[in-house]
Amino acid sequence: MWELKNKVALITGGASGIGLAYAKELLRNDLKGVALIDINNENGNKAVNEILEEFKRKNCVIFIKTDITDEKQLENAFETTIKTFHQLDILINNAGIFHEVEVEKCIDVNLVAVIKGSMLAIEKYFPKYKSAPEGLIVNTASIAGLQPVERTPTYTATKYGVVGFTRAMGGDVRYQVGKTRMIAICPSLVYTPMCNATEDCVPEPFLSMIVDCVKNKPGQTPEELAKKVIPVISNAPTGSVWIVTTAGCNEVEFPS
Ligand code: NAD
């Protein structure tokens, strides 16, 4: 039985929304520590204070300001996490942006950094620093990684990429260097700052259509999502993909 207790997690996009909710839910499950990795300095410091206030446990959280699209910064985030907690067991590749204008940036944050972060964990850090025989990588994809979401072709492509990467790498024994399970989570609408898309990210008339869609679709809070996801991650098989809607968290079946 793989337990969350006393494990250490690095969470990208951990300063806000889903990443922050994962951090808190993991600490509720007796994780030893979480490293929040985010480009947003202000939210990162706020998140640390919120966690310290809520959990009253010294040294259970750090924030490392990081642009995950910069390889040096990404590697520094791993190094700082190890220096602080002396172990690393879980990588949650969660940072993401909703951008249909800056195509390369959207691909770099949502997909390239997921691949590079996973490689760093599997090849360099898990083999030396995980506290149990097995490490875990959780990739936040999206329902847009399972079915195209209207008017968001770039975002949709990146999330299909995350699902494909997880199935390919998580399901391939040749990649099980030092034993790592990799799974993907595909949430439907979650009420987070990402839902407040601006015209810089999605040009009109598509923006209005997306805003309407967000208003009219039932969504979940990041806390509700985290409560459904965290119990699943301990024993989910490697390469598995999970859809998380208001109805619950279920494994996705793909045609064989
Ligand atoms: P959010 O905007 O609250 O959180 C995303 C975080 O990623 C932010 O704190 C942001 O600063 C950080 N980030 C962005 N670019 C970064 C970079 N280059 N380096 C480091 N950090 C960076 O949004 P969220 O909804 O919590 O999104 C989390 C994940 O969930 C994303 O991958 C998103 O695609 C996915 N998702 C969201 C929804 C939804 O409806 N909100 C649905 C499905 C999937």
TrEMBL record:
InterPro entries: NAD(P)-bd_dom_sf, Sc_DH/Rdtase_CS, SDR_fam
Pfam families listed in its UniProt record: adh_short (PF00106)
GO MF term (any one): oxidoreductase activity, acting on the CH-OH group of donors, NAD or NADP as acceptor
SUPFAM superfamilies: NAD(P)-binding Rossmann-fold domains (SSF51735)
Cellular component per GO, a single term: cytoplasm
KW Transmembrane (keyword) present: no
The entry's keywords: Oxidoreductase
Domain of life of the organism encoding this protein: Eukaryota
Coiled-coil spans in chain: none
UniProt similarity note: Belongs to the short-chain dehydrogenases/reductases (SDR) family.
PANTHER family for this protein: 15-HYDROXYPROSTAGLANDIN DEHYDROGENASE [NAD(+)], ALCOHOL DEHYDROGENASE-RELATED
Protein name as annotated: Uncharacterized protein
Originating species: Ignelater luminosus (Cucubano)
